[in-house]
Q: What sequence folds into this?
């Protein structure tokens, strides 16, 4: 991995080469187009931000960079494209230029985080952030997990996450750490999960998703326990699901399940027991031929707590 000095040297070298080429163009009486001038202005604006970030050990999100000069960039898409051009020029990923995605995931629970770009500890059970704390896009430098935390619960859907918070799930059925990736987990959320795992390797990590092919594929992460609260037929029998909540698997769903099984079997990161468990989940879903959204489950808090208790 290159350090900040190497990156700064590359940026300075590129700037020097560009200025030299401008002088040569002037001698040859070549005129730059307005579009080219704008493109170069945007690029050097990004270079200035990156240089300052590296010098001061600071970080910026893609959104923050756009707002440094919205008149120049016009839209975030334009600033993102410019950042992409710079990474190709210096042949370094943007994370090493201290540029990150905007925060997406949310965390709430009995854990303290020390985030990069920030010195104080963040209390993830703060009374000032009752709807959770946005996961820092720059990563965490340290983490303290309360010794009485029983497990980590990843919730795919933001609506279910807030529903559990509203019912005071953490206090009533924890203590635990709850995280929502608001869909497919981004890099920041995965990095935080890695840090939690590194801090406490014995902590169980559960994942609550819809009962469908997309979400089986989403949670195919090592050492993760997928919470299958109810197979469709059991949910109907116990009247926690209704007929209207169930829909048929499509051909695309079935193909995804087949591909998922092949991926799990051929992957070296899964243990034999995990391969068997994941394959059974996928095959059972195929056999049932149906899917449902977890939002449909009535009294989900109680069923969720019971299922987690069985697996702890």
A:
């Amino acid at each position: 991995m290159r350090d900040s000095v190497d990156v700064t040297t590359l940026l300075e070298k590129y700037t020097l080469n560009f200025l030299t080429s401008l002088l040569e163009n002037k001698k040859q009486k070549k005129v730059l187009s307005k579009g080219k001038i704008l493109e170069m202005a945007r690029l050097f604006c990004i270079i200035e931000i990156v240089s300052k970030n590296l010098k001061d050990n600071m970080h910026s999100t893609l959104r923050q960079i756009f707002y440094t000069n919205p008149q120049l960039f016009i839209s975030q898409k334009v600033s993102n494209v410019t950042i992409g051009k710079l990474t190709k020029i210096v042949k370094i990923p943007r994370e090493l230029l201290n540029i990150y995605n905007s925060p997406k995931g949310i965390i709430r629970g009995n854990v303290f985080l020390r985030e990069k770009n920030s010195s104080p500890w963040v209390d993830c059970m703060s009374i000032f952030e009752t709807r959770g704390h946005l996961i820092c896009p720059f990563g965490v430098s340290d983490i303290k997990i309360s010794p009485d935390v029983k497990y980590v619960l990843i919730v795919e859907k933001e609506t279910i996450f807030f529903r559990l918070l509203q019912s005071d799930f953490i206090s009533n059925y924890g203590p635990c750490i709850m995280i929502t990736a608001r869909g497919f987990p981004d890099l920041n959320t995965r990095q935080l999960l890695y840090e939690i795992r590194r801090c406490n390797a014995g902590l169980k990590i559960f994942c609550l998703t819809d009962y469908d092919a997309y979400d089986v594929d989403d949670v195919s992460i090592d050492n993760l326990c997928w919470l299958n609260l109810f197979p469709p037929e059991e949910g109907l029998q116990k009247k926690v699901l209704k007929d209207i909540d169930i829909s048929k698997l499509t051909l695309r769903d079935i193909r995804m399940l087949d591909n998922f099984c092949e991926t799990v079997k051929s992957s070296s990161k899964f243990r034999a027991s995990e391969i068997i468990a994941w394959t059974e989940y996928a095959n059972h879903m195929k056999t049932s031929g149906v899917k449902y959204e977890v939002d449909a489950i009535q009294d989900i808090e109680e069923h969720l707590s019971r299922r987690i208790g069985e697996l702890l």
In short: Residues 94 and 196 are 24 Å apart (CA to CA).
